[in-house]
Each structure stands twice: as structure tokens, then as C-alpha cells.
Specification:
Two copies of one chain form a homodimer. By secondary structure, chain A is α/β, with parallel strands linked by helices. In chain A, 39% of the residues lie in helices and 18% in strands. The longest helix of chain A has 19 residues. The first copy, chain A, is elongated and about 70 Å long. The N and C termini of chain A lie far apart (60 Å). Chains A and B meet through helix 2, helix 3, helix 9, helix 10 and strand 10 of A and helix 2, helix 3, helix 9, helix 10 and strand 10 of B.
Chain lengths: 376, 376
């Protein structure tokens, strides 16, 4: 039966709290917990011992009472599925304290299975006809507006040259702006504005939706002129996003929104790193852009968190393309120069309410946003 | 447009850290963040102010620097979808510190939309033909066993009278035990044992799987004799589980496994309470049993956590039936009397490795497990 095992391994890097003895015990526990779920003494089969139980490849002190553990697993524990990959790297172990998933490294055989983003940075720039400058994004809000009001807003934002006009992620299928009607009217409004001003704006409806209708909504959006999709993989599951990215009929850029994922990064000594969750896992699961709350906005990410996330969006993952970090969360136009300086040009700048409050002339505000973004 | 709003509201109860001023600021922020995502001053439409922004119905001190906030939202913010319900009660706010979702209260109009568990406690007892005693459950493990070995194990466990023989949640579709072959052989083995001993055991395969194939796997399992299903809603998304529970063709009991959900309960001052996450949300999303790590096992739940979880499994939720708490996670047979005393009879006792290590005679161990569980 050993021929089942290729010898190829994936590696997950964890930070473990405790002194060396404690950290080693955690690492050893992890090798069992994420695979056989039995005490070591009960695993007698030599093939299983050699090929299923995880292996501690390195355990290094990195700070006082903090260790970095590189633990590798046979690719065969995964069975080619993202759901099981998530389970092996952070399933049960999410329930134990003092273990933080920092980074993953996948071998070629797994990278071949996960296609990652359909567009990535290069593809999205081509798709949106924006070769160099930062991309501009805003949100249709607030929840409660009618379809007519949202479409009017979308028209003006497109006239102002915003590249991606997305639904607020709280727009689902509510009675005040039902999904299908909203998509038809907002996509039409953006197309009309593009014609009127020669622009290339796209509308990105929120397709975070119940399991049985999500594919249907994505297809409806595509057929009715949406130019991108917004989804919250924390709510739908990461593999749902992956399936949408892999769907050749849908074939639209995907913006990943962090709603319901905050608990993974709430505690510095457990959960998942910003690098891995918003960068690596978003990419594996097909996102072209990772929306996140910028440092100094309504949320509490630090600059260091944001930089780590940006690294996760672009770190080498073989065939998995880099994606756009998309800082957001209460950014006003006055902060654009600072964001431009911090993130460089490979960024999607997402300004929501701040774009609306700058002056009463929304189109002028959009133009000003673009000028700020273009300045180096 | 006011006719769109019924006046019915759902309520979410949060624990907020800080002094009264800080807690009130958090509560106010929450009413905006979970709905309009705009600063209060930018929301000028009176209909939206009255119907969309959340409302602080109560703010009560419960400990030093800890407040309980009851915040209600119009049912229209939900649009009848579990995905958007999750978003409204804990989407963006999951990213802010010092806010813990403790409990939800849904009005009749929402409870009517979510059917909850198909079986619940009463239905599962009927289905398994176990009117009174605690139900017995175990797991096929370790990962790495062949289909033949798993089926042999399943046969013996069924012969020993274990009510539910589930896959370990790490069994997916790996080369050593591919899903379809495993389901066919294990279901057949359990059926044969039932015939041989006049039992009623069921086999519950793990259907945690990629989005495009999960429904297919559940149907395959049903068609080939599986008697229940195991799923990790933290990985697939809660609504995926709900869709499976609502599927009249599948119509099997569902065991919910907590893999990848640990981060929601890692920090006592953020995330989601055990009561709400494993109790209320599991029920809303159609689970018949909530698997969780028992106090004093391989994980770190306290007795208080476990009791809160049990409460969440049975608290009045209108038409949503109570479900079985299913303590697990490194329980040996010697702990069954204590679990019996703590959980009473309305429990599924899940003993995995402990059942195997008790003595070399697995069938005898199963019988002993049952005797212990039947004793009051």
C-alpha cells in the first residue's frame, strides 16, 4: 500500500506559545490532532505512522515563550480538496489555545490542483483597462436604498470614473432592493455611464447567498452585465468562492470581503495570520482582491498587519497569481495620499462613505479621488 | 415605501467590554456597522434611519467593565437568508475587539423561514429506535486505513451496538479510502451487522466536501445506505448544512463537527458564545447534533462552556427543535459515568480512541460502553 504515497508534502508554519517543552508538546499534539486523531501509542500501523501523522520539520524559538514550528503533511492527507486542506492545516487545532497558523507552503502537485485567482493582478488590470495606477473602488450604500436610488448612485460613480462599483456587502436579497432587479438596473446604469463618458467601470454585485442559489445568482449577474463579483467567504465557505472562480461560464473577477472572518485574527496567539488568511487562503480560494480594514480606519488592524496581508497577497505561491490588497473600512479621501505611499500602485483603493461626504458633487469627488490616486 | 417594513425585529445580545461610555459607543457603532456602514451623520433618509439602523434596546452592566447590549434589527435587513442573518448579527463586527455575540432571539416570521433540524431530539430517537438512554457514537479512524479496514471496524462497532458510527472528520476523498467506495462498503458492513445482531446502527459518512460536489456526495450516501451525515459547517459554511437539512430527498440526520470554528470561541471577550455558535446557530442551520470537545479532554472547554452549549442546544427557539449535545474529544470509557451525570439522558456520547484502547475485544468494549451509558 506504500505506493499510494508520493512522498510530496505540504508544510504549515505555526507559532506556538510556551517554553520549549510546551511548544514541542503542542507541535507533537498537532501532528496527531490534524491527522489520525488518536494518541500516538494507538497508531501501530507503520504505513500510517510514516505517511499520515504530521512531521515536525523544524522548531525554532522566535521570541520569549514563542516558537515557530514547521509541520509537514503528506499531500495524500488532502485528497485534492480545498475543504480538506483547510481541515488539515487548521481544523481541530483552531479549538486549541496558543497555536497560530502563520503560513503555508504547498508542493507543485497541490498548486496544480488549485487554480487560484482567474485574473490576479495582471489579469484584472487588463480586464479593467488600467495598466498602471492604483485601481479605484467604492460601495453602493447604505442598505435600505431602493433599486432606483442604487442605480442612480452607480451611474454617477461610473461617470466619475470609479473602476469597480461594488454592492455594500450587506445588500443581499432584501425587499427594498431585491437581487435580480438590483443587478439588472445597476449594471445597466454603469453601462450607460460608460457609454456617456467612454469609461470602463464595472459593477460588482454581492453574491453572498444561500448555498442553493449562489451559483444561480453569479450566473444571473454575469448574464445581466455585472463585471465582477463580491463574496464573503467567511460566510459561504472558502471553497464556494473557489468554485465560482473556477467556473468558466461565470469567469468574472472576484472581490473577497472579510465579514465573519474577524475572529480568526482577534487574538495574536491563536487563529490565523493576516498573511495566510487574507493573502494565501484568499488566493488559493480564487479571490482577485482581498478587501480588509486599513490601519487607522473604523477597525483595528495595525500597519504591520496590513503589510503582512500585502505580503500574503503577493508572496510566491508558484502558479497561484498575486492579487490586489484592497484597504478599506472608513477611509476618507484625505487618506488617499498616505495609502498611495504605503501600498504603492498595486492596490485597489476602496473608499465608501468618504467619497460621498467630501463635497455634494459626487462626480467631482470621484475625479478628485482619481487624481489623488494617480499622484505619486 | 414604509409599507416594506413589518415592524418585526430580531434581537442580538452582545457582551461589550469597557466602561459605560465605551460600551455605549461600541453599541452605537454596532447599530451602524452591521447595517448602513456609514457614519450616523451621513444617513439622512428618515425611513432608513427608522428601519435599517440597528436599535439599542438595552444596555446593562453585568460585571466590571462589561456590559450586555440588546440590539434589534428589522427583519427586512435579513431578506429571509441565513447567510445575511449571519452577516447582520456578526459580519463586520467580528473584526472589532471586545464584542462577543452571546445570544439571538428571532421573531416568528424568521423562525418560520428557517426549519432548523429535520429530526431534532425526538425525531432522532425515533429514527434510531432509542427511546430513553443516551445515544452512543464513535468514529472510524485513523485516517490512512483502507476501505476494507474501515468497513471491518464499522462491522464490529455495529455488532457492539453503537448507534451512530461516523467517519472521523478527516476522512474526505483521499486515495487510501475514496469517498464512494468507503460509503458503499461501510454502509454495507453496518447493515450486515444489524442483520446479524438485530441492531439499528447507522453509518454517518463525512460529507464535508468542495462546493460543487457536496450535494452529490450527500445523495450518494443516502442512496447507498448511510443513515446520517457528518459535516463541518465551519469549513463549508453554515448555510450549506442548512440546505442539506432542508433537502427532502436526502432527509438524513446531521451531525455538526466544530473543525475550523475554534477561533470564534478562542477569546472570552470577542467571537461568539458557546451557547450561540454551537447551540443556536447549529440548530438554525439544521444540525441534529452538535459535536464539541468535552471539558477535561484533549481540548480546553470548561464545564461552564459545556453547560452553556447544552443550554443553546435546548433553549426555546419557537419551532426550531432542540438538538443533541455530543461531547467528545478524547473521552475514555472511564469518563462515561461522569458524562452521564453531567449531561443526563439527552446526549450523544461520542467515544473514539477510548473505545478502542479499553481492551482488545472491540465488541465487548462497545457493550461495556452501552452498559455504562444506560446506568443512571
Amino acid at each position: 500500500m506504500t505506493t499510494l504515497y508520493s512522498g510530496e508534502r505540504l508544510t504549515a508554519i505555526y507559532h506556538l506559545t510556551g517554553n520549549e517543552t510546551e511548544a514541542r508538546a503542542k507541535a507533537q499534539d498537532l501532528t496527531l490532532e490534524q491527522t489520525v486523531e488518536l494518541p500516538d501509542a494507538l497508531v501501530t500501523d507503520p504505513t500510517i505512522r510514516a505517511n499520515i501523522i504530521g512531521r515536525i520539520d523544524e522548531l525554532t524559538p522566535i521570541a520569549s515563550d514563542l516558537y515557530s514550528a514547521e509541520i509537514s503533511f503528506s499531500v495524500e492527507t488532502i485528497g485534492d480538496e480545498l475543504t480538506q486542506l483547510i481541515n488539515v492545516i487548521f481544523g481541530n487545532i483552531s479549538i486549541k489555545p496558543g497555536i497560530r497558523l502563520e503560513r503555508i507552503e504547498l508542493p507543485p502537485s497541490l498548486l496544480k490542483i488549485f487554480h487560484g485567482p482567474r485574473f490576479g493582478r495582471v489579469g484584472l488590470r487588463e480586464f479593467l483597462n488600467v495598466p498602471e495606477r492604483p485601481l479605484l473602488c467604492t460601495a453602493l450604500k447604505p442598505m435600505g436604498l431602493s433599486v432606483e436610488e442604487l442605480a442612480d448612485l452607480a451611474y454617477q460613480l461610473a461617470l466619475g470614473g470609479i473602476d469597480i462599483i461594488k454592492d455594500d456587502h450587506g445588500l443581499a436579497n432584501q425587499p427594498f432592493a431585491p437581487f435580480e432587479e438590483r443587478v439588472v438596473r445597476c449594471a445597466e446604469a454603469v453601462a450607460r455611464a460608460n457609454q456617456d463618458c467612454g469609461g470602463h467601470s464595472v459593477y460588482a454585485p454581492n453574491i453572498t447567498a444561500p448555498f442553493p442559489v449562489i451559483l444561480e445568482r453569479a450566473r444571473f449577474a454575469k448574464q445581466h452585465g455585472a463585471g465582477a463579483l463580491l463574496i464573503c467567504p467567511g460566510i459561504t465557505g472558502l471553497d464556494t468562492m473557489r468554485a465560482l472562480a473556477d467556473d468558466d461560464e461565470i469567469a468574472l473577477p472576484i472581490l473577497s470581503h472579510p465579514a465573519f472572518q474577524g475572529s480568526y485574527i482577534a487574538d495574536r496567539t491563536s487563529g490565523i495570520s493576516h498573511f495566510c488568511l487574507f493573502g494565501q487562503l484568499n488566493r488559493l480560494a480564487g479571490a482577485d482582491a482581498a478587501i480588509f480594514p486599513n490601519a487607522g480606519g473604523r477597525f483595528f488592524f495595525t500597519k504591520q498587519d496590513c503589510r503582512a496581508l500585502v505580503d500574503g497577497c503577493s508572496t510566491n505561491m508558484g502558479t497561484i497569481a498575486p492579487i490586489f490588497p484592497t484597504p478599506a473600512g472608513g477611509m476618507g479621501l484625505q487618506r488617499v495620499p498616505e495609502m498611495r505611499a504605503m501600498y504603492g500602485r498595486d492596490v485597489i483603493l476602496l473608499v465608501g462613505g468618504g467619497l460621498r461626504s467630501h463635497s455634494p458633487d459626487l462626480v467631482a469627488n470621484c475625479n478628485f479621488f482619481r487624481e489623488l490616486a494617480e499622484k505619486m
